[in-house]
Write a structure and sequence with these properties.
The chain is built from 13 helices and ten strands. It has about 375 residues and is of the alpha+beta class. Helix 2 packs antiparallel against helix 3, helix 3 packs antiparallel against helix 6 (about 105-125) and helix 4 runs antiparallel to helix 5 (about 85-105). The chain is elongated. The protein starts with a helix and ends with a helix. The structure holds ligand 2U9. Ligand 2U9 binds near residues 205 and 325.
Length: about 375
């Protein structure tokens, strides 16, 4: 029976349709099920058609819509209106019709079949002898690779990786680090202010203050992350760059520990032949402070264009944590001492991969990135 015919008969009672016994009831309901099943199959066979999802919904409503759907009409006329002696047979037949109708019309399954149909139909069209379309494998960004290489060295030394907010308070980014109000780094020439008390962090040092407050001493942590400075982008400066800082606080930490650790780090990263040189420097948050240089990795220290014939390349800063900074972190400088260092990860990646323009890291040019 066609769907149109089923719709017409669903408006009539079974006795109007000449059904007067249980066999007739079962046969009539079987006809209805068969019609719905066939309609569904032909619907799915047209699954590649653009309007398929809409047709599925329409067919679903036609069959299952509350009140005027076919199943509802059949319930009213073939079940509710059926004489008592045929009710049990009609009840059983109707229940199986409703269940099948719902399963038949479970939208998702129809759409999946459709998809399958589409792929099947695609496959028919697909020439499997054609080469597959290669999905070029990506790789880690060179700055990320350098960061992980540095993290690995300190993780193996028993340090933990800490992280913290990039939008920081003036207190944690400057005050707690002993950086005086008048210090030039506070100028909005150097720092990106969100408002008078909030900045984009200019270094990861504020995370160390937070860690000292949170964990106290002893503390062995490294803090990698993005930092921001009001810098005009050029070959060696970017307003957003990556830093990693390290902090070791314990009851007998000395400058010798600092030198030994950073010398070990440099040899692990640039090779055992590399030598380190420490020269006095100044940072508000360390006293004494040092500038660390490594023997030039391009000329082995003989002198070349990169190291400006000096044989040395300055790579990072360090120092013993200033007692006031320890106090700001809630640590008693009478009991504990500590060392800290800071380096620019992008600069280390430029050295390692011999890249002369920091902007290349942030231009998302796949021709550049796929080299790593
Ligand atoms: C605390 C105590 C001490 C972190 C340090 C440096 C030296 C340093 C520069 C490296 C390259 C910044 O990105 S850069 O320009 N940083 O030279 N940073 S000592 O000293 C700290 C930090 C936090 C609590």
């Amino acid at each position: 029976m066609t769907l149109e015919e089923l719709k017409r008969q669903a408006e009539l009672s079974l006795s109007d349709l000449g059904v007067h016994d249980e066999a007739g009831v079962t046969a009539k309901f079987a006809e209805a099920r068969e019609t719905m099943g066939r309609e569904r199959t032909s619907l799915v066979s047209r699954s590649t058609d653009l309007h398929f999802p809409r047709r599925v919904r329409e067919f679903r409503n036609l069959i299952l819509a509350r009140g005027h759907g076919l199943v509802a009409r059949i319930k009213e006329n073939w079940l509710d209106a059926t004489p008592k002696h045929l009710k049990p047979a009609a009840g059983r037949a109707f229940n199986s019709l409703r269940i099948i109708a719902e399963e038949l019309l479970e939208e998702e399954s129809i759409l999946n079949i459709a998809k399958l149909g589409k792929t099947l139909e695609l496959e028919e069209r697909l020439d499997l002898t054609l080469p597959g379309n290669r999905r070029p494998l990506g790789s880690l960004h060179p700055v990320t690779q350098m960061q992980r290489e540095i993290e690995e060295i300190f993780l193996n030394l028993g340090f933990r990786i800490e992280s913290g907010p990039e939008i920081e308070s003036v207190y944690y980014n400057f005050d707690a680090l002993n950086i005086p109000e008048s210090h030039p780094s506070r100028d909005d020439w150097d720092t990106l202010y969100i408002d008078s008390r909030t900045v984009l962090r200019t270094h990861t040092s504020p995370v160390q203050i937070r860690a000292m407050e949170k964990y106290g001493a002893p503390l062995y942590i490294i803090i990698p992350g993005k930092c921001y400075r009001h810098d005009n982008p050029d070959a060696s400066h970017s307003p957003m760059f990556h830093q990693i800082e390290g902090l070791a606080i314990d009851c007998d930490i000395t400058f010798a520990d600092l030198k030994g650790t950073l010398d070990f780090f440099a040899k692990k990263l640039f090779g055992e032949k590399v030598r380190t040189r420490f020269q006095p420097s100044f940072f508000p948050f360390t006293e004494p402070s040092g500038e660390v240089a490594i023997s030039c990795i391009f000329c082995g220290g003989e002198g070349c264009r990169v190291c400006k014939e000096s044989g040395w390349i300055e790579v990072m800063g360090c120092g013993m944590v200033h007692p006031q900074v320890l106090r700001n972190g809630g640590i008693d400088p009478e009991k504990y001492t500590g060392w800290a260092f800071g380096l620019g990860i992008d600069r280390f990646a430029m050295m390692k991969y011999d890249i002369n323009d920091i902007q290349l890291f942030f231009q998302s040019d796949v021709r550049f990135l796929q080299q790593f």
